[in-house]
Design goal:
Belongs to the sigma-70 factor family. ECF subfamily. One of its GO terms (molecular function) is sigma factor activity. The protein is mainly alpha-helical. The chain contains 20 helices and no strands. Among the domains are: 81 residues, Orthogonal Bundle (Rna Polymerase Sigma Factor, Chain: A), CATH 1.10.1740; 83 residues, Serine Threonine Protein Phosphatase 5, Tetratricopeptide repeat (Alpha Horseshoe). It is elongated.
């Protein structure tokens, strides 16, 4: 497939699916006729050229296929009578909400509905809004294709049986529902930034897809500051992608990364969005996290980073969204501000947190601080713990290398 045509399909898929779902109220039917329209485009466009309005061409073709299918299926006769579909119409009908640019927003809220299991929300969002095939989604999350197919089918069945509406929440509902949508997009990015399993630390294409989804969401909800905050956070983190792994695929810590390899245009875009996220009211969770990421990206080195400000921002974050992981990150920042022993005091106070007992980053952070505090025997034991908790080949290799270095120092230290 030509790259230009592929780009059109990727951009138009979510918009097309949203328009079809709004018109027919059936996600399976919408997906089927959208796929048929894309297949028709693959036949005609390479010969006739990409039309001036490719989205309208796809929508017209898909609508006609849907109408023909409904006419053939008598079980849909009543639905067809209600819809009064004009098969010749080429322009989309009015949006669910005239103030919204297109119909993709309703798909965001449907795919991220709280009635769906968390893993199903992510799978359905990638399938419907990112336009990824079931095979691509399965490959991205390193699960068998039948397993991913079952997740998507399960999510669609839940939507159908629970009568989850294909609509955008009203203004009174939006504040409570938007965080769920943002969490789904951020979960996709997190899997791309730090893979939960497999040989690689990062899945660049998954992280990039999450950023694309956030850009769509930002365009749909430009006044929502937390949408700006989420997009800023992901851009500021993803800007470091090329420096985060060594040639052998093992992680490179922030202190050792080549900052010249960071994506400066992405950092500048992220910094601009941070201002939008933090202007006009109380800060949100993503806006504060983005501000922390911006301080890291603005610094010339780890030593010149504004650690007091980062600790202060983590204090704010703890009031907004208290969690053991936030406390862990704050402890690491305190260690940079006040020294490794100060950080260890905070980390040891978190040792009984159930979430952190089997959390690889916690074990690794503790091992690193023990090594920096010259408590090498304890550091070696902590690295062994981190090694048992590592889920990816890259994390295992990193823990093994750090353990090997500490063990060599211990062997060469006079008793």
């Amino acid at each position: 497939m030509e790259p230009a045509i592929a780009a059109v399909f990727r951009e138009e898929h979510g918009r097309l699916l949203g328009a079809l779902v709004r018109r027919f109220g059936d996600l399976d039917l919408a997906e089927e006729v959208a796929s048929e329209a894309i297949e028709a485009a693959l036949t005609h466009w390479p010969v006739d050229g990409v039309p001036a309005k490719p989205g309208a061409w796809l929508l017209t073709t898909a609508r006609r296929r849907a109408v023909n299918r409904l006419k053939r299926d008598q079980t849909y006769a009543a639905k067809l009578a209600v819809l009064h579909v004009d098969a010749q119409r080429t322009e989309p009908g009015p949006s669910v909400d005239a103030s919204l640019p297109d119909d993709r927003l309703q798909l965001f809220f449907t795919c991220a509905h709280p009635a769906l299991a968390a893993e199903d929300r992510v799978a359905l969002t990638l399938r419907c809004l990112a336009g990824m095939t079931t095979v691509e989604v399965a490959r991205a999350f390193l699960v068998p294709v039948p397993t991913m197919a079952q997740r998507i089918v399960r999510a669609k069945k839940k939507i159908r049986e629970a009568r989850i509406p294909f609509r955008v929440p009203g203004p009174d509902e939006l504040p409570s529902r938007l965080p769920g949508v943002l969490q789904v997009v951020y979960s996709i990015f997190t899997e791309g930034y730090a893979a939960s399993s497999g040989p690689a630390l990062q899945r660049i294409e998954v992280a990039a897809e999450a950023i694309r989804l956030a850009r769509v969401l930002r365009g749909l909800l430009p006044a929502e500051r937390e949408v700006a905050g989420l997009l800023a956070l992901m851009l500021l983190i993803h800007a470091r992608r090329d420096a985060r792994t060594a040639p052998d695929g093992t992680p490179v810590l922030l202190a050792d990364q080549s900052r010249a390899a960071w994506d400066r245009s992405m950092i500048e875009e992220g910094r601009t969005l941070v201002i939008a996220a933090l202007t006009g009211g109380s800060p949100g969770v993503y806006g504060v996290q983005a501000a922390i990421a911006a301080l890291h990206d603005e610094a010339a080195s780890v030593e010149t980073t504004d650690w007091p400000q980062i600790v202060a921002l983590y204090d704010v974050l703890l009031t907004l969204s208290p969690s053991p992981v936030v406390s862990l990150n704050r402890a690491a920042a305190v260690a940079m501000r006040d020294g490794p022993e100060a950080g260890l005091v905070l980390l040891d106070a978190l040792a009984e947190e159930p979430l952190l007992r089997a959390y690889h980053p916690y074990a690794l952070a503790r091992a690193d601080l023990l090594e920096r505090a010259d408590r090498l025997s304890e550091a070696a034991e902590a690295y062994r713990k981190a090694l048992t908790l590592a889920a990816t080949d890259a994390d295992r290799a990193h823990a093994e290398r750090r353990l090997s270095g500490v063990s060599a120092t211990l062997r060469n230290t006079p008793m």
